[in-house]
Design a protein that fits this description.
The chain is an alpha+beta fold and 815 residues long. It has 4 domains: 174 residues, 2-Layer Sandwich (Beta Polymerase, domain 2), CATH 3.30.460; 119 residues, no CATH class; 146 residues, Hypothetical protein af1432, CATH 1.10.3210; 195 residues, no CATH class. It contains 30 helices and 15 strands. Strands 8-9-11-10-14-15-13-12 form an 8-stranded antiparallel beta sheet, with helices on both faces. Strands 3-2-1-4 form a 4-stranded mixed beta sheet, sandwiched between helices. Helix 9 packs across helix 10, helix 17 crosses helix 23 and helix 19 runs antiparallel to helix 20. The longest helix is centred in the N-terminal third of the chain and has 37 residues. The relative contact order is 0.05.
Length: 815
Amino acid sequence: MNGGGAVAQQNGGIQHNGAADLVRAREQLLTGAGTRNPRLDPESLRSALVDLFELWLTSKGNELGITADSGLAVIAVGGLGRREMLPYSDLDLVLLHDDVDPTLVAEVADQLWYPLWDAHIKLDHSVRTVPQALRVAADDMIAALGMLEARHIVGDEDLSNLLIGGVRREWRTGIRSRFDELIAQATARWQRSGQIAHRAEPDLKNGRGGLRDIQLLDALAIAQLTDAMPGLGPEVPGGGLRQAHRRLLDVRTELHRVAGRARDQLRAQDADEIGAALRIGDRFDLARTLSDSARTVSYSTEVGLRTAANALPRRGLARLRRMPVRRPLDEGVVEHSGEVVLARDARAQRDPGLILRVAAASAQTGLPMSATTLNRLSEDAPELREPWPKDALNDLLVLLGAGRGSIDAVEALDRTGLWGRLFPEWGAVRDLPPRDAVHTWTVDRHLMEAVAYAGGFSTRVARPDLLALGALLHDIGKGRAGDHSIVGAELATHIGRRLGLWPSDVRTLSAIVRHHLLLPDTATRRDLDDPATVRHVVEALDGDVGLLELLHTLAEADSLATGPGVWGDWKASLIGELVRRCKLVMAGEPLPQPEPIDPELLEQARAGGVHVTLAPGDGKHTYVVTVIAPDEPGLLSDAAGVLALHSLRVLSASLGEAGGSAINTFVVAPKFGDPPDAGLLRQELIRATTGALNLPAVLAKREAEAIGTGPGQYARAQPRLIWSPTSTPGQVILELRAEDRVGLLSRLAGAFAAAEANVRWAKVVTMGSSVVDAFCLDLGDADSAPLRDRIEKAVLDLVPKPAPAPPPGESDSAD
């Protein structure tokens, strides 16, 4: 082609003007000067700027001879290419040419670029042929991402389409080899710029949850790996990804207008003005809006990257691999392709507890929940009846007790509207920014951080379930009028009743929320040597030493979840001393006592033989298994092992003996499906007691097959053993607080039997993923410190323990 010959130098030289009118028009749009409409809203301003720059470029191009048959074309990338032109964004242009005299191309380029430079418009420009541009896109990831947004402006449209189509085609065919680099680039950007939702001065463009992430989703969509706007369900807070995108653009547009220049980082001193201009409110209202938008974008990006990774085309031998298996995790919940999904036979419309089971499985295993599964639950799952069934409450406790895994699981539920369905009160604290600079997180994220820390302290308290719920709700009163502790205590009462807690537990939960600041405020602001200080705390807690223990542990979790430096030796020592003095005044906790035995069970025990019965429990998925058999060493281990063998999780147990027979009652929940027949359990128990069934070997295999469990799975909390004397010589009570594992009760009973310690009675309780088990052990004349040490070591060898601390100077987490 030689259409470029139509381009001629005007007046025999390069014109270095022509863009002044463009700048004046831009300023009029920004200020409203000389127009009837004094101020355009951000979206209208962006649209007007796009039209303005396109008009100038089209006119200038036609003036320079860049026409349909010229062999020249101008394409826009960046903001103009996306039709998201901000007031002071760079103008990113590419001048394409095809077989045109290089001298003429240079002349056209100079006459196109110089007026823009002279007008002080920031310009990112290049002059290339289509093959050259394709090579650049193939070699440079950033250039490739930019060209994916390219749009024809003026000139030879076929030439522009040749480049645009070629870049997109090569992006789709080469995405498999470039995907890892794409992920690495995004991860490095997030590490540099941080999370928008939790930064005081966020980078709206490059931060995690920002505009670059939306462009990343667009690039994945062009590669046909995912949807650029993944659906987040019908009840999404804030209006979903499209609304989040528009809000981020609006804030960045106003940031340019306020700053009078290009800027990506929102400074604190500009926040009030921008919030007012957007009619959002003050800087706190703006921060809340940004948090909501950024977290929606961040979650959508995670879903998009995960979906894209699973959709990558397989090549070579990988094409011959079998499809991933569906591995059961819980009733109606399976793992598939690295995600938690619904089982094929799950009935979301009839199973309101399915939401919590899916989330609990995700939190425990560390596997993300499939976006399709969450959308289906959003659309189909019915509301939980009030009060909640016991199995739903237990699944909630499993979710909250999963450590840091609970944060991601709840975030996914919240971004898809499911968490707000379970806890409507959450809306007042969602994305609520802190008023104190010492706080790192929004209020809702702070609550989940506190839950995660509390999970690591669960063995310090006798009621880890109330500790987890207290951590979840301690600041739930924020965002409302009045003292948040008083308001929160009232909300906690309503929530506790909805969850189906016992009235006494509801009162304790309310007291935790009401007094969660009592210990730190008193210890750091009052004289501990003054008897009135201790009396003030004891009277406020009504002498409840269990509540004091919960508040002590929550104070540390709350402080650690607030931010760096909030919890230290000074604060810990003051609160610890206050608690010690309060305990001296309060009455100690009573020792565990055996449950009374039902007279009907006593009659069965007198008849002798082995009896196993199974009856429905209080919950939809709970059952009561009663085992009566001659009281012989190893019976408890065999009975608990048979239950574990059939995937029956022991939620609680009452173990006793009368007349030479053991009477053991277990409340169990099947992991999947229906429980086995009582006759089968009896048959297996007889096989185990006679040695025909090797329970330890079978249980070890089951545990190795389970996801997220097993001897290699680290606990979040350090196990704790508490020895207490009884009034009977030779008998002691051993209380174990630890995290659960497959067949734990069977293993513990086996350890006691190996040590020739007879279990006189026991009370076993599972709260979520934590166990609080009390065993009355008859050690007889052999009771001694060495024997207790051996028993303690044997028990600790069986329970999950936290990961060992890294060597000095090494980090336990990757950058």
